[in-house]
Each structure stands twice: as structure tokens, then as C-alpha cells.
Amino acid sequence: MEFLLAIITGLLYAAGLYMMLRRSLVKLIIGLIIISNGANLLIFLLGRITKGHPPIIPKGSEVFTEIYADPVPQALILTAIVISFGLQSFAIILIKRAYQAVKTDDLDEMNTIEEDIR
Amino acid sequence: MLIAILTGFIFAILLFFGGKRLVINKLALLPTLIPLGLFIYFIRFIGDISNQNFIYKTYEWIPSLGVNLSFTLDGLSLLFTLLITGIGTLVFAYTSSYLKGHPYLDRFYAYLSVFMAAMLGLVLSDNLISIFVFWELTSISSFFLIGFNNDSEASRKSALTALGITGVGGLLLLAGGLVLGNISGSFSIAEMLGQKDLIQGHEHYILAACLIFGAAFTKSAQFPFHFWLPGAMKAPTPVSTYLHSATMVKAGIYLLFRLSPLMGDTQFWNTTLMIVGGITMLYAAFHSIFRTDMKGILAYTTISALGILVFLIGLGTQESYLAAGVFIIVHALYKATFFMMTGVVDHQAKTRNVTELAGLRKVMLPVAIAGILAAISNAGIPPSVGFVGKDLIYEGTFHFEHSAILLTILAVLTNVFISYAGYVAGIKPFVGKLPEKFEKVKFPSIFLWLPPVLLGSLGFIFGLFPVLIQDALVKPILWSIGQDAAEVHLKLWHGFTPILGLSALTIGAGILLYFLLKPSQKLEHSITRFEKISPKSIMEGVNTVFMMFSAFWTRTFQNGYLRNYVSTIILFLIMLMGFTLIGGTTYHIDYASFAKLTIYEIVILFVLVFAIGLIVFAKSRLAAVVATGIMGYSICLLFVFYSAPDLAMTQFAIDTLTVILFVLVLYRLPKYLKLSDFKVRIRDGVLSIAFGALITILALEVLAQPVNSEISDFYAKNSYLLAHGKNVVNVILVDFRGADTMVEISVLAISAIGVFGLLKLRLKSVERYQK
């Protein structure tokens, strides 16, 4: 399964990069979302995956008695998901405002239009 | 001694505050006191130095790097300090009148003071690194002085050329110093001298010598780097006098002199110096006879004189060192006189063209005297000190062990040209009939004519009584480079020797040339035709190509398109990592594990692949956003399968919110356009797939490595015992790394404020885009 997940991760990165290279601002944001998902999956995968053993200490005991999933990557990813949401929501609203101001979501037009806005 | 060096810098800073008063209150003569005071300070050392009591002072600067401010005052340094401060005094006084009432006079004095201080530091330093620092400071102050008339484009260009050439030379000096320091383990020249054999036998000796040569040849305007010096004549005349004839351009000579006991006396050192010096002296002397601008003539004769000095150091005999030492004094005296005289002519008659100037003795007799004195000393006519100097040069070449005849012919030829150029610049403007347009020329002020007359007369006093400089200056120079000086006797009259014949020949041929060859525009034109193939044009060509290349480079990589930056970075990353991975990977696919896959996992993977494909190829934006949502939920399910319930919950909530946000703003956006053509899409697609493959390979590589679970074990073990929580992920976030989580929450809060602000923002009408 690790092998397939590694391929999926690569696929996410590839799709994310491809979307980031588009001229449309919306696609850029979508690309960003895909890449951040890919990064999460990568961290998760590199922390080794375990089926059916969440890092929760079972009732009645004080420490783990059998194998458990690595909690550190999970904590990292949790932080990453939340932070990337902060970024994404801000970016999405920013596109909206930018569109209201310049009436385009084409990055190239935004580039050249700069002098016209005072 | 440190104070003496720093005085110039301190004074320059003071001028920054109160400098304007110099101009307003007519205190322009005041700064002259600085070099004068320093001159008096240094001249007191003559007694010590002539008794071989050289002075060493060391101040620690960066001891950990072996860089100390160590100063040596020996014969060579003393000569240069006296030139710097002595001629400096006259130049400062001269400037007060030459640039009278100039709005930036204070600035000019500040630059001059900085230069003077840097030059003093340069000739007094014993440490190669501090020599480098002062060396570059002289280049920088020279840059400001050449470009002083900064409203003239030619001035600015010349200043840049000079800075470019001498600045690069300075870097070569640093490199050379580092090589020498590496070989000997010290940057102090005095300490290196003890390891002469080690340095000369080292495999990097040639490299070090080449670097030092590069520094010296650029600073002292040797062929083919000479062309910055004629350009530097765009500077006001006091600058040409001070920097570009008497002191700064001799810094290279000083360096060679200073290092010759250390690096000299090898075949490579001597031959290179002789060849470069020889070419320079003849080439520049030959060029000087074609010029019509007085400063142009003087610039080329200066280059020629510097060539003679390099050539003499290259000969490397006691006689040639003696000749070089005396010639430095001789040249400084007459060339500074020449320049100051030229400045007065230019200042009063408003032209420097020798074809127009004539008969000026009738309106400015003292200046004419100065010019004629300089011309006589320059031509080596007795009883000037120039005669003594020229004799010594001929003795140096004539007594050289091999090809003496050839070298002597070379020297004679050079001197004939130089003396002709001297007559043209120093005598021609003053003799003959005064043209009408110059009849109204005013008599210059005393500070303009006195300094050149003083210097010119000094040349005759030293010529009549050479013993004055013999013990005080010349012998200590030889001592300071480890030569024997007991037998040195400077004399005007040597009796009837072949040398006397050579001198007579030089003088005669020079005078003959003066009467045969009249300077004219036509003559000048005949040589400027060849400028296309001169080193200057080649350098300019190289410059142009370099500028074009950098413009191309900037346009290619700094093109203002985000996606191009991203592609460049990713492409570079792929190449870098691909190069490392080319050696092969260590991961082996465990096919047996595929059998353990459940149907849920397979379905999720397919959904994920489908969602990704949909995002990339969707025609409508809504479809893309929905697909993004599907992708998020699939990953969410993956988290569920692989024991990460907290992640699944978070991902689920966040993904829902993102999709809602997207849909909310979607209807306001323009149509989902396909903006790129097929070719671009293929290009980006290939790049993206390569990048994805790279990530996959990297992930597999890491998976093949053993895992270190030390940290996880710590958290797992202590989660309940220390923090009394059973969900380890939660405990890590809110307890062990609680502070991090709090900062994260504040990031979210800031983002929320931003979103809120953007939503509430009402654009002013001017901010709305109107097409």
C-alpha cells in the first residue's frame, strides 16, 4: 500500500504544480490546495502507516500495550491542515476582491494593468 | 602614526558638518594646514630613517584573522609619505584658488583628504590586507574625484572606467595577498620576508606573482590597462596633479618595489616586469607625441614614466633600483609642476590645446618659468635633477648583464619622445607671438603660480645639490628593500662617459624633433584612427557584450511571471535531485503486500485518481471545485483507514468550509477560460509529471530507510503519565506543544480578521478598474 500511496502523493504534487502554472488565479489557488494536500499525505506516509491502531491509549491502561500509529506526524499534519485553511480562505476572498478591482482573474493581465490603477 | 593616517578621514567627516563655511567665509586655504602639518610630522623622521632606524608600530585590528594595523616607516614609505603630504600641501593650496567659489569645494576637499589618508595608509601599512583596504579606498576616492564634474557624461564614464580597472586590480591584490598569506602563514610583509625561499619555491608562486602584477599594472596604468589614465584627465587639474601623476598611480610601483625583495629576483618576475614596462614606456611615449591636449600629452608621458619605473624594477639590479628610486622623485617633481602649470593655463586662457597656445609668457611669466623648468628637468638637461635621474636610468640599462644595447636603445628612444612631449607641453605655449585672443588673459593669483614654481625650482636645487636627497631619501630606499647603499653617490657630473653621450644624444634628438614636428590636429588624427584596435575599445566591447548578457539574463529569469519563477525553481530542483538519484534507487516493491489490500482502499484510490484528473481537466470551475472537495474527502477517508481519526475529523471540517467559501465567491468570477495554448500545456504537463515522479521516488527512498521513533515513543509513554490524556495526538497539540498551538490559533485569528476586512472593504471609486 505504501507504494500506491507514494504514487498518489506524486500525482497530487504533479497536479498541484500543473494547476499552479496556469494563468488563472482560481486555478493557482486550487493548485495550492492540491499541493498542500499532497504534502500532508507525504508527511503521513513517511511517518509509516498503520491500519486500525489509532494513537489513543486504550481504556484501563496507562501506556500502549500493542502497536500504535505514530502520533507525531499526525500532530504535524493537523497543524498544517488548519494553517493551510487560514491561507486558503484568505486567498479565496482576496481573489474575489482583486476581481472586483481589476475585473480579471488572468494573472498576466493583472501584471500589466498595474500602472492604470491609481 | 595611526592618528596621522586617520587625520584625513576625520577631517573629511568634519567637512561634512561645517564644510560649506569654507566656501562662504573664504576659508578655502584652511584645509592646506592638514597636509602641511602631516608633512612637518613626517619630515622629522628623516634623521631616524637616514640612520637606518626604521619605525614599526602595530595596533591589533582583527587578530583572529591575522590582520593587524601594522605600520612601517622605512626609506620607501618615507619617500612616499613626503610626496603625498608635500605635493598634497601644494595641491591643497592650489585648489583653494583653482576652484575658488565652487559650490562643492567642501566636497572636493573631503575627497582629497580621504584620498590622502588612504594613500598614507597604503604606503605605511605592513599588512597586505590593510594595504588592500587602503588600496581600494584610493580607487574609490579617485572615482569621486574623476567624476567631480558629475554633470558631464564623459567625466562620469571616465570615472567608471577608472574605478572598474583599478577596482578589479584591488581585488587581484586581495587574492594575491591571500595566496601569499596562505603560503607563509602571515599577512605581514616583514614576517613574509623571512620565508622568501618558501614562497619562491612554492607551486603557487607564479599565481601569486600574476595576481600582484594584475594589481600593480592596473593601478599604475601599464599596457594594456593604461587607458583609464588618459580618461582620468577629465578630473579637475589638481586631481590630475595629485592622484594621477604624483601619488596614486605610483601605488603599483610602490607595491612592486615593496615586494621585490620578497618575490623578485626570479626569472618570471624580472622578465614580466621588463617586458610589460618596456612595452608601456615606448608605447605611451610614442603616443604622447601625437596629442594636442596638454593634459593628454602629460597623461601619456606619465604612463610612459610609470613604464620606465616598472622596467627598472624588472631589471632588478642595485643600479636599476637606485635609478627607479631617484626617478620617482624626479618624476613627481617635474610632472606635478607640469600639471599645475597646465591647470593655470587652462584656468586663465580657457584652452589646453597646444596648437592654439603661444606667447603666454607675456601675460603669465611665473607660469612660463615653471613650465620651462619642468620641461628642462623632464628632458634631463643639466643642471636639473632630471639629468641625474636620466643618467642613472642609462647606467641601469647600459650595465645590465645581457642585451644591454637593446635595452639602452629602448630607453633612449622613450626618453627622446618624452622630452619632445615635455617641450611641447612646457615650452611651446609660452614662446612665440602672443595671439590676439589671449591678450586679455589675466595674471593668475599667487596660489596658482607659486606651487608649480616652487616644485620646479626644487628640481633644480636637488639637481645642483643631489647630496640633499642622497642621504635623506635615496639610500634609505635601497636599504628598505634590502639593497646595499654604501657606494651610492649622486652626482651631476660624472666625467666624459658613454652615459654622458647618451644623455647628450637624447637631449639633442628631442630638440631636433621639436623643431621638425609641429603638433597639429592632423597628426593627432593619424593616431586616433587606430583606436578601434586599442585595448580601450576592446574593453568597451567586452563591456557592451557583458551588459547585453546581463540584460538577457535578467529578462529571462526576472520576467515578472510567477509561474516562470516556479517552473525555473522546480526545473532546477528536478535536475539537481535527478542527478543524485541517477545512481539508482534502493526501494524494492513488495508485491505480496498488494494481496492484503481491501476493497475500500482500492475504491478510495480510484476515486482519488479520478478526482485529481477531474480537477486538472475540468471545463467548468464548479466541477473543479467539486472535484477538489472529492479529493479532500477521499484523503479524509484514507486518514480514517490508517488510524488517524483526529486528522480525518479536521480534514472533513476544513474541506467542507473551503468548498463552501469557494462556491460563495464563484458566481462573481468571470468565465473559466482556457488561457494557454496546447504547447504550453504539454510543457507544463511534462514538468509537473517529472516533479511528481521525483516526489514519489523520494518518498519511496525514505520509506526504504529505517525509522527512528524515539520522539513518538516519548510522547506515547508520557501522554497519560505526565499529561493525563489518552489521545496522544491531542495531548501533543494542547499540552506538550501547547505554545505552538496557541501561535497557530493567532495565525488563524489574523487570517480571519483579514478575510473579514476584505469582505467589508468598500473600494473607492478611483480604485475600481474602468476599462
Report on this model:
The complex is a heterodimer of chains A (118) and B (771). Chain A has 118 residues and is mostly helical. Chain A has a single domain, classed as Orthogonal Bundle (Helix Hairpins), CATH 1.10.287.3510. Chain A is built from 4 helices and no strands. In chain A, helix 1 runs antiparallel to helix 2 and helix 2 (25-46) packs antiparallel against helix 3. Chain B is mainly α and 771 residues long. In chain B, a hairpin with a 4-residue loop joins strand 1 (55-62) and strand 2. The model of chain B has no long low-confidence stretch (mean pLDDT 86). The chains are: A mainly alpha (118), B mainly alpha (771). Chains A and B meet through helix 1, helix 2, helix 3 and helix 4 of A and helix 26, helix 27, helix 28, helix 29 and helix 30 of B.
Throw out a few tags for this protein.
A: 118 residues; mainly alpha; B: 771 residues; two-stranded antiparallel ribbon; 2 strands; 2% strand; elongated
Short description:
Chain A is mainly α and 118 residues long. Chain A is built from four helices and no strands. In chain A, helix 1 (2-20) runs antiparallel to helix 2 and helix 2 (25-46) runs antiparallel to helix 3.
Write the layout of secondary structure elements.
The complex is a heterodimer of chains A (118) and B (771).
Chain A: H1 2-20, H2 25-46, H3 71-102, H4 107-113
Helix pairs in contact in A: 1-2, 2-3
Chain B: H1 2-18, H2 20-24, H3 33-43, H4 46-50, E1 55-62, E2 67-73, H5 75-98, H6 105-124, H7 128-146, H8 153-184, H9 189-193, H10 196-201, H11 205-219, H12 228-232, H13 237-246, H14 251-263, H15 267-288, H16 294-315, H17 318-349, H18 365-379, H19 385-398, H20 404-426, H21 446-464, H22 467-480, H23 498-516, H24 521-528, H25 535-557, H26 562-581, H27 599-617, H28 621-641, H29 645-666, H30 678-703, H31 710-723, H32 728-736, H33 738-760
Antiparallel strand pairs in B: 1-2
Biggest interface and its residues per chain? A-B, 92 and 102 residues
For the report, how would you describe the main beta sheet of chain A? Answer: none
Number of helices of chain A: 4
Helical fraction of chain B equals: over 70%
Q: Can you summarize the main beta sheet of chain B?
A: 2 strands, antiparallel
- Please, how many domains of chain B? 5
Strand tally of chain A: 0
Distance between the termini of chain A: 56 Å
Oligomeric organization of the protein chains: heterodimer
Reading side by side through the largest sheet of chain B, how are the strands ordered? 1-2
Principal-axis shape of chain A: elongated
Strand content of chain B: under 5%
Q: Outline of chain B, from the CA principal axes?
A: elongated
Report the radius of gyration of chain B as a whole number of Å: 38 Å
